[in-house]
Design brief:
The protein is α+β, with helices and mostly antiparallel strands. 40% of the residues lie in helices and 27% in strands. It has 2 domains: 104 residues, Beta-Lactamase (2-Layer Sandwich); 167 residues, Histidine kinase-like ATPase, C-terminal domain (Heat Shock Protein 90, 2-Layer Sandwich), CATH 3.30.565.10. The strands form 3 sheets. The chain has a 5-stranded antiparallel β-sheet with strand order 2-1-5-4-3. A hairpin with a 2-residue loop joins strand 9 and strand 10. The structure holds adenosine-5'-triphosphate and magnesium ion.
Length: 354
């Protein structure tokens, strides 16, 4: 597709060009994201229709076109998709391609959000390193302890004392398998171009087999999503761990929603991607316990009887291997986990090493 303003395509701020009747003649990808409409829908549509409920702003733009003059407004209160938003707006008169006014809209929250995500990711990476090192340190001596307990057992004069060496062997085995799970499997990832819905359908089947009664999974898929490179088994495991938690939180009774959407111009770990696939798993259970909220991605953190607390830590590892991001919002009655997976070209498709 040719675009009249190629230089504006990669900007993170939304740019629109309007004609004399305030119809959109150009919208960059960031504008599509901000206005939650695709370019096809935006082009030729009057701004008043794209931004309903913003009459004052539209009047201001009409005035600017009439006067052939720009303006600059900080902290403009707009309604975007029914939500109030504070934006910074710059309008400049233009003359190219039938356009009369170019407007730049920058959501003030955006800056804050990008900084928050970067910090979260940095923190998660530091945690993972710490955990890996710790798990290795614990795992190494376990073999020695187990072996020594077995040698000791053979030398024991009283067979009744075997009970104690057996405890040592059993407990080291338990720790060993825990550490192995924590260090994520050594299986070589198999990267292929995959459709995220195939992954979600597998998870859905597995989940419904585990909870045949009382659980329903509502699907809200954007079928136009592009394929993305990934390791299918890891992604199934990651999404299953999240969805299984949702089912467990609701004690197997309730509704889980699987939602997929395209996200445009996302920045994850300081890398910008034109597109990412957003996968949401939402439940209407009691919500993540407040005292756990800041640490559920840590291994061994569990609010469940019998939980090992590894599910989300593993899910996070797999998502990070795919250069993605996992986060959640939770309140009683609504908990939503969001997994963002960047759509990388097959050339850059290798998984991150962890
Ligand atoms: N959808 C959810 N609703 C409420 N609480 C949740 C939800 N998802 C996770 N949690 C909380 O986060 C904790 C950690 O989850 P995680 O999957 O890491 O471990 P686990 O489920 O306890 O054990 P494992 O997955 O290893 O069997 C859970 O024990 C639960 O308290
Ligand atoms: Mg779990």
């Amino acid at each position: 597709m040719t675009t009249p303003y190629p230089g504006l395509e990669l900007l993170a701020t939304a740019v629109l060009v309007l004609d004399e009747h305030l119809r959109v003649t150009y919208a960059n990808p960031a504008a599509e994201t901000l206005l939650a409409h695709g370019r096809k829908h935006l082009l030729g549509t009057a701004l008043a229709k794209v931004l309903p409920g913003n009459d004052r702003f539209v009047a201001r733009l009409e005035q600017a076109v009439a006067d052939d003059a720009g303006f600059n407004e900080n902290e403009l209160a707009l309604e975007l998709g029914g939500q109030p938003a504070i934006v910074h707006c710059v309008a400049v008169p233009v003359t190219e391609d039938g356009g009369r006014l170019l407007i730049e809209l920058r959501e003030l929250d955006q800056q804050i959000r990008i900084a928050k995500e970067a910090k979260l990711l940095e923190q998660q990476q530091a945690n993972r390193e710490l955990i890996r090192n710790l798990a290795h340190e614990i795992k190494n001596p376990l073999g020695g302890i187990r072996g020594a307990a077995q040698l000791l057992e053979r030398e024991l004069p009283d067979p009744d004392l075997k009970e104690f060496t057996q405890v040592i062997v059993k407990e080291t085995d338990r720790l060993q398998s825990l550490m192995n799970r924590m260090l994520t499997p050594h299986r070589l990832p198999q990267i292929e171009m995959l459709n995220v819905h195939e992954v979600m359908e597998r998870v859905r089947t597995l989940l419904l087999a585990e909870y045949p009664e009382g659980l329903s999974v509502r699907r809200d898929y954007d079928v136009s999503l592009p394929d993305l490179p990934g390791d299918k088994e890891s992604l199934i495991q990651a999404i299953l761990n999240v969805a299984r938690n949702a089912a467990q939180a609701m004690e197997g009774r309730g509704e889980i929603a699987f939602r997929t959407r395209i996200a445009r111009q996302v920045t994850i770990a300081k890398t910008r991607y034109r597109h990412a696939v957003s996968v949401e798993i939402e439940d209407n259970g009691p919500g993540v316990p407040e005292d756990l909220a800041g640490k559920i991605f840590f291994p061994l953190v569990s609010g469940r009887d019998g939980g090992t607390g590894l599910g989300l830590s593993l899910a996070q590892n797999y998502v990070h291997q795919h250069h993605g991001l996992i986060e959640f919002e939770s309140a009683p009655g609504r908990t939503r986990f969001t997994i963002l997976l960047p759509v990388r070209s097959p050339q850059q498709a290798g998984l991150a090493r962890h």
